[in-house]
Amino acid sequence: MHIYQLAIIDQKLKEAMAKFSLLPAHTSIFDAALFEQLLDDSRVLIKTYISLLKSLQILPKENHYYKGHSLIKHTVNGAEADGTIDPDYLTVIQNLVLPHLVGNSSDKKQIFPIHIHFTTSTEVYLFSGIGLYKQDESRVYSLLHEMSMPVNYISYASHAKCNYLLSIFYTEEYNERQSIHTLYPRYNISYLQFRKDCKICLGTTFYNFYMKMKMLDVLDDIMLTNLSLKEIAHKNNFSSYIAMHQLFKRKYNFPLYIIPRILNGSN
Description:
- This protein folds into 2 domains: 3-153, no CATH class; 160-258, Arc Repressor Mutant, subunit A, CATH 1.10.10.60.
- The protein is built from 8 helices and 5 strands.
- It has helices at 3-21, 32-55, 87-97, 163-171, 191-202, 206-224, 229-235, 241-251; strands at residues 66-75, 78-81, 111-119, 123-134, 139-150.
- Strands 2-1-5-4-3 form a 5-stranded antiparallel sheet.
- Helix 1 (3-21) runs antiparallel to helix 2 (32-55) and helix 1 (3-21) packs parallel to helix 6.
- It is globular and about 60 Å long.
């Protein structure tokens, strides 16, 4: 996997966790049942992402990636985890959460996303999940899922040369009805160089990678909204529900019916 692919899908997962943090939850009752439900739902979200990314041949299938979860209790005086977590990582997570514990309580969100990386000489670690602010205790509970990937899975080939591809993904208003030949000339890149850069940095053609990222948008909508599948197809500019269904089922063997509808409680 190239570092550019990793950066793009990491941003997608970060955005998905932010959407998850906005889902309605009965935060008037902070109890074990609420924690367990949010932990289970966020675990389903992450594992479904991993499963689709494997089917899309973006993540190598031989690695499990998902390592487990942690519940961390935060106060202004420090943090305490219910399991084993590197003390240095715990300190960084505490510093990330601390702004939610200080300041004006009226401005604080009861649920907020957490997404942070750590790198060692052999592994890249990702902790992703949510924090729950319990005002009456002046405490935050972090429900975090740990993932990791061996460093040797990641390629940095032609790293600096491909910056313009990220610009296209994040700033251009591209859609599949638009010719790709409108994209690269503004960066003074030839078509042959564009194709080569896409193969190296995205692992496939620009169009194929774009469609894979579009499938992640569909995944978000199925899991985190109550829109019908036809509405989701229209929202994501598919010509029809059948076209969306065929892309998932026929091309990547990932049928839509296996995607859990978290908002509807059908996971």
